[in-house]
Amino acid sequence: MSQQWNSNMAPYRQERSSCLPIILVLLILLAAIGGGVYFLANQSFDLAKAPLRTVQGTAIGIREPTEGQQATITGSVLYRSTQLAYDRNGDERNEVLVQVTSKSIYSMALLDGADGKALWQTELGSESYDLVALEAYIAVVKERDLRLFNAKDGTLAWQTRLSDRIQLYPPMLFISGDLIVVQTYDNILTAFEVATGTQRWQKTLADRYARALTKFGDELCGTERDAESGLEFIICFALQTGEQRQAIQLNQDWTERIEWMADPQNNTGILRLRSDSDPAQLAAIGLDQQQRWSVELADDFADSFRSSDRSLASSADMLAFGAGEQVAIITPEHQVVTYSLSDYALHPIGFDGEVLYLAAVKQRGTNTVSMVAINAKTAELLWRLDDLGTASDWSGNNPIQGVIVPGEGIIFGWLDQEIDDLARVQLLKRADGTVGWSFQQEMFIGQLPTLTRSGNALLIQTGDGLRMANLRTGEGLWTLTR
């Protein structure tokens, strides 16, 4: 018999188990997970705050340095901020200047080149700065503002503000005795006493905008053009007084195309190229305006003299200029030897006795880089290694470079093309290009390694930190990670 609804009947309920225990379990699990995340975050934060130390060539984070494990710097090293400073303690090893950041505060530190330990660290402010190592001083630049610090202990000597932004590419700051001379973008030279910051003299140059200047001994020289005659002169000023000392005439009339640079083999003359003649004429001229030697070159090599495209290498008695697929070598007898390689742009890197090392950039397909060694006197090919990175890795203002180890070979660094973010550094032997020693580092973000020689050591800078190594064996001396 079916049951019918009666208003006097009790409401219908279905018996169900309670959800409360399940909810409690979920809450406990969430609390445990949150506590774990909070603990790990605190640990990571504490580790990030901890200074870095070097222990047998490996950098690790610590809270307090223990005996025999001296801390170095607090913060992360800014990539490409590193440069060599003067030898502060006389151990024939340049110290290392770095810029670091921690909690949005920037500072600079000087590391002992021998063991990587911090000699001092000085806070700079809440922005990044341009650092320029100048003998026993360090210039800290931010547009028009200049601060000069003592490299010995990192203390501030003085600070000032100039009329315009300071010329930094390349850095136009020069030490001369008790003065520092600075060029600004409005083409004004200002000299300050390094000890006090007192202005000694100021000179406004003829051109409206600054151009790179060259230091010859105690003189600072640049190019000026006479507006009426079209004649170009190298005008030199005394660093101590700002007075004009001499003017070297470069051309005979306004139609002549002249390029010049400081003679890389000495500091008492220039190399001048007359590129409007056929063939072009390259001559070495002293500051006394006397010609020392002259050779004939193809007009293409005029590009080697323009600062934006400059491609040259020099030794005590030889010069090499690159222009497209050719390299011209000036021998000690002032003869011209030419080497060419089809479909490759050649960039001279350096000499090792009679061996000249070249970087060759492929011009078709992928712009891979090859290392080439030739006999500089005969242009005979000694060896060639292909596919050492791609040219785009050296884009911008970074020319392809290597470090010459006299009698041993050349040290070259590149990014691996097949393994992402892997940097390789190798000593390629002088005789046959085989590997003398090898170092590799896998980075969080792959960035081209920067190589700098310091005495008998090599400073390797990557996106993940610094490594000082023995130049000839590659053995690590100390390491500093970011």
TrEMBL record:
<dbReference type="InterPro" id="IPR002372">
    <property type="entry name" value="PQQ_rpt_dom"/>
</dbReference>
<dbReference type="Pfam" id="PF13360">
    <property type="entry name" value="PQQ_2"/>
</dbReference>
<keyword id="KW-0812">Transmembrane</keyword>
<feature type="transmembrane region" description="Helical">
    <location>
        <begin position="20"/>
        <end position="41"/>
    </location>
</feature>
<dbReference type="InterPro" id="IPR015943">
    <property type="entry name" value="WD40/YVTN_repeat-like_dom_sf"/>
</dbReference>
<dbReference type="InterPro" id="IPR011047">
    <property type="entry name" value="Quinoprotein_ADH-like_sf"/>
</dbReference>
<dbReference type="InterPro" id="IPR018391">
    <property type="entry name" value="PQQ_b-propeller_rpt"/>
</dbReference>
<keyword id="KW-0472">Membrane</keyword>
<keyword id="KW-1133">Transmembrane helix</keyword>
<feature type="domain" description="Pyrrolo-quinoline quinone repeat">
    <location>
        <begin position="110"/>
        <end position="205"/>
    </location>
</feature>
<protein>
    <recommendedName>
        <fullName>Pyrrolo-quinoline quinone repeat domain-containing protein</fullName>
    </recommendedName>
</protein>
